[in-house]
User: Which sequence fits this backbone?
């Protein structure tokens, strides 16, 4: 018997886990062997419902597959959904898409949890005090019409995430019918500064990068394997790059202040002092010694000693990088979010792009993009500057009606914007929402959207891998909830309120989409085939591929105005740089309520279900902090507290908190997990583009005295598992393999 | 670790084992004896014997429902069984497809009930008769391919291996234990091996050759048995059912 005494003994001498499991295992096995009843058998209890009328292709137990488009991020990967008995079970990449070539990332896989999420909004909700009251769609539409009556166009605003394809056309027409030009396209995480720098140096916002053609890739904080632009596509290019051109395995060098997934894969990872990426690029140009004219003039002061002092990168490393870039051509230099998030972000990005020009990579590993033949369908690209403008306007009380779709500005606006309060100044706020997220909670009217697996649409990705492609989004199954509506359907109903005559031919968005596609049948490559055949083929392929002309890139090198500030002195009060990390699981936090996203370990730290403050062990030692300490991270704007994770892959002067957690709404899987770094982000802006300089926040760290065990996958560092040391800490040359075997 | 704790935990395990053993009946002698399941109330008392039962040789018009069936092939209605893991239940459309052309029974209560569902376009909430635990994946298609298509055995006999004499039942009732031991008892039997004929189709018995092994049949014994037959066992890989 286990009496109270032995329990006490147990507490004193922990019951060894291994022994316990062993004994429990034997006991359990004995129980199982006797055949302890088949409790899961449901003869006569469970109902089997047959079809009333079955489609020919429906066989219970046999899956059918439909092609559609992933909507988890803006990369525009094509997907194939496995559907059994009318329910979507699993998503895979569509091999026909040049972007993802049959692959799909973890975020894409989790999309089924978006569709089946129990916290989806199911009825149109009208604010009644603090509560949302379910109303009918007729009433919702009538209410919008009523609220818009007598409101001038300039008093109406719409904030959306990236939008493209026919939804964008319809959205544009609706705003047009309202006489409003206030469409704010906002993405919390977008390469807007890089686009501006690209425009300056290549003549296009987003060229095609050919990692697969490069022999060396030098990436300044571009996490192209995890989060940057089109990660699934780049991961495949990366595989080809590592296989090598002419038998030479590609070399990846990553320079950044906080290690990203790409950085973890690099052959050489350089910890750069935050904000000095551009200086390092100029230092490398100097070390290359091939620049002439203006460029040589610009970089002449950036000698190794100075660059090393300012960036923290050793002179020998600068030499090595210059040497390998000289030795192997073509190379490719990438500039990512880590370099652009400063006041001088554009200058940083420009200096890095200049390196590409000097190395002669433009035209070789940086190619001109194809242009989309239907410019009205090309994506509207989100910027953080848009939110600033919207916020200023809202603060000034300019808007009476505000529409919100596919973005969550209340969650991702820096606290100093006071966006929540400013949003309240808009008279009537309509949110198109899947969930009651932070922004939807502030709305007066919430319109529940179909999931991407129930809805129709077309998408044109910003980054086109090969040819122009228009991606088809189609329902993979019937609506789960009777009262949700497609985004296009709602738009069509709204635009009909204004332009009934123009849109009367379309009963629903499907009809609109079909007729819009068939109208341009010839241009979409369907000349000669009849309507039904072409439409069915289009849906079955899930992609319309078009040949688009690709222009030439500008080779002009203009370094006028390129000036990098010397690194700031360390602020005594706020000595550390805050790096709000974009992780491949969470991105900007719009998918945090998908449990797979929460529970899949962060690729670098393996932490699940919580936020962390990533810190260099050296700095932690100085501050007397160990892993699991709860620290308070304070900026000028505010403070958050989270557990510390010690990680050598970060510059000692920096701390990092991942973006995406810390929701105070958005359902059971998101609410209350972790902290939101936007809450302490200072409102500092990139000086040329007006984008939010996300890496400019300075913080200090104080211990709170609490300590927790960090929940992570990796186990205690160098620790023991099952009483046995599993990984000895020694360098590889000391390992005697004969003993190990 | 307190060594004495082994004992109570082990004891608890054994007690559970004995308790469970006592609670379940003695397993039936495998493959032969029937193990009748519960009689399950269905929304419509579907007469299997009328549809699949043997023809009444005396009354060829088949007019007396108590005296004979129509010998309809099981697969005529259960079409999914040969195409899928799961046999499924025939769609309502299937019943109505025939019955709308059989005016003679249109006013019988069960048919009236059937058409009520059809008119409302509502599915009939049948109750499950044969259920397996969720961790078992029994494949109907494979068994039909093997016994009916490959070996050409009669359909009712093959379905009956597991489902019993459904052609004599009204609503189906489980007749076999459908436990793992029962399944394995057939899979572990020594089946006579027959070499494929010139068309590659074996005439009864376990086929020999590449395809058979691909279906994870075990290799036949080296030597013939006393009756001069070469025998082999059926597939016995765990993962066949426990994926």
Assistant:
């Amino acid at each position: 018997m286990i009496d109270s005494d032995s329990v006490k003994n147990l507490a004193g001498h922990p019951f060894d886990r291994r022994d316990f499991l062993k004994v429990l295992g034997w006991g359990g096995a004995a129980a199982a062997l006797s055949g302890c009843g088949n409790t899961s058998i449901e003869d006569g209890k469970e109902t089997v419902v047959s079809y009333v009328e079955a489609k020919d292709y429906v066989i219970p137990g046999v899956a059918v597959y439909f092609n559609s488009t992933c909507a988890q991020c803006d990369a525009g990967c094509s997907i194939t959904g496995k559907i059994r008995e009318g329910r979507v079970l699993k998503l895979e990449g569509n091999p026909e898409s040049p972007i993802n070539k049959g692959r799909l990332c973890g975020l894409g896989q989790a999309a089924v949890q978006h569709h089946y999420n129990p916290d989806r909004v199911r009825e149109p909700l009208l604010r009644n005090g603090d509560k949302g009251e379910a109303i009918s769609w007729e009433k919702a539409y009538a209410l919008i019409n009523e609220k818009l009556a007598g409101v001038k166009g300039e008093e109406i605003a719409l904030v959306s995430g990236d939008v493209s394809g026919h939804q964008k056309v319809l959205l544009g027409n609706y705003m047009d019918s309202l006489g409003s030009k206030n469409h704010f396209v906002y993405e919390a995480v977008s390469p807007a500064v890089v686009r501006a720098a690209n425009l300056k140096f290549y003549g296009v916002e987003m060229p095609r990068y050919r990692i697969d053609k490069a022999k060396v890739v030098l990436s300044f904080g571009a996490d192209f394997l995890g989060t940057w632009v089109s990660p699934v596509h780049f991961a495949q290019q990366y595989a080809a790059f590592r296989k090598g051109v002419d038998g030479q395995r590609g070399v990846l060098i990553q320079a950044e202040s906080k290690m990203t997934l790409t950085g973890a894969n690099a052959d050489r990872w350089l910890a750069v002092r935050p904000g000095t990426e551009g200086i390092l690029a100029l230092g490398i140009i100097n070390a290359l010694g091939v620049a002439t004219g203006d460029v040589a003039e610009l970089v002449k002061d950036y000698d190794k000693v100075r660059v090393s002092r300012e960036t923290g990168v050793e002179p020998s490393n600068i030499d090595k990088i210059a040497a390998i870039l000289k030795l192997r051509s073509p190379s490719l230099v990438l500039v990512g979010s880590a370099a652009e998030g400063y006041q001088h972000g554009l200058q940083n990005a420009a200096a890095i792009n200049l390196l590409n020009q000097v190395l002669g990579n433009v035209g070789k590993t940086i190619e001109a993009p194809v242009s989309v033949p239907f410019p009205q369908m090309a994506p509207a690209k989100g910027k953080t500057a848009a939110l600033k403008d919207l916020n200023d306007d809202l603060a000034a009380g300019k808007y009476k009606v505000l529409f919100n779709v596919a973005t969550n500005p209340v969650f991702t606006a820096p606290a100093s914007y006071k966006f929540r309060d400013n949003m309240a100044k808009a008279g009537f706020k309509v949110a198109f929402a899947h969930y009651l997220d932070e922004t939807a909670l502030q709305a007066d009217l919430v319109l529940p959207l179909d999931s991407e697996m129930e809805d129709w649409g077309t998408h044109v990705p910003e980054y086109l891998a090969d040819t122009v492609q228009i991606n088809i989004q189609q329902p993979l199954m019937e609506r789960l909830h009777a009262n949700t509506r497609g985004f296009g359907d709602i738009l069509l109903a709204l635009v009909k309120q204004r332009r009934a005559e123009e849109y009367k031919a379309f009963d629903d968005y499907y009809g609109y989409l079909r007729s819009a596609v068939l109208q341009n049948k010839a241009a979409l490559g369907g000349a000669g085939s009849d309507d039904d055949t072409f439409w069915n083929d289009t849906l079955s392929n899930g992609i319309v591929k078009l040949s688009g002309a690709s222009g030439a890139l500008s080779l002009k090198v203009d370094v006028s105005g390129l000036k990098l500030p010397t690194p700031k002195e360390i602020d005594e009060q706020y000595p550390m740089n805050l790096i709000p990390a974009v992780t491949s699981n969470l991105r900007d936090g719009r998918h945090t309520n998908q449990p797979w996203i929460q529970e899949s370990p962060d690729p670098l730290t393996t932490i699940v279900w919580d936020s962390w403050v990533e810190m260099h062990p050296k700095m932690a030692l100085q501050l007397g902090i160990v892993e699991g300490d709860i620290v308070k991270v304070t900026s000028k704007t505010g403070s958050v507290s989270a557990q510390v994770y010690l990680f050598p892959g970060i510059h000692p002067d920096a701390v990092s908190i991942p973006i995406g957690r810390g929701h105070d709404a958005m359902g059971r899987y998101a609410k209350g997990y972790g902290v939101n770094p936007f809450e302490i982000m200072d409102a500092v802006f990139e000086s040329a583009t007006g984008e939010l300089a996300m890496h400019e926040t300075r913080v200090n760290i104080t211990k709170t005295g609490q300590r927790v065990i960090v929940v992570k996958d990796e186990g205690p560092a160098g620790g023991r598992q099952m009483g046995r040391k599993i990984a000895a800490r020694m360098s590889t040359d000391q390992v005697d393999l004969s003993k190990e075997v | 670790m307190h060594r004495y704790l082994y004992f109570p935990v082990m004891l608890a395990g054994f007690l559970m084992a004995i308790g469970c053993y006592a609670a379940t009946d003695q397993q039936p002698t495998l493959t032969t004896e029937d193990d009748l399941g519960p009689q399950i109330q269905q929304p419509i008392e579907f007469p299997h014997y009328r549809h699949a039962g043997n023809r009444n040789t005396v009354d060829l018009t088949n007019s007396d429902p108590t005296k004979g069936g129509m010998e309809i092939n099981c697969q005529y209605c259960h079409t999914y069984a040969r195409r899928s893991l799961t046999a499924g239940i025939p769609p309502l459309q299937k019943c109505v497809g025939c019955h709308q052309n059989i005016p003679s029974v249109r006013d019988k209560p069960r048919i009236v009930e059937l058409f009520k569902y059809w008119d409302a376009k509502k599915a009939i909430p049948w109750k499950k008769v044969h259920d397996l635990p969720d961790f078992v994946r029994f494949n109907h298609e494979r068994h039909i391919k093997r016994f009916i298509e490959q070996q050409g055995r009669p359909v009712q006999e093959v379905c009956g291996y597991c489902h019993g004499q459904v052609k004599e039942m009204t609503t189906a009732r489980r007749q076999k234990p459908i436990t793992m031991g029962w399944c394995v008892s057939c899979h572990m039997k020594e089946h006579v091996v027959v070499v494929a004929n010139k068309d590659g189709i074996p005439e009864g018995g376990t086929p020999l050759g590449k395809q058979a092994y691909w279906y994870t049949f075990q290799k036949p014994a080296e030597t013939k048995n006393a009756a001069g037959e070469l025998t082999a066992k059926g597939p016995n890989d765990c993962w066949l059912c426990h994926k």
Observations:
- Chain A has four domains: 4-115, 125-185+374-468+478-522, 193-367, 576-707.
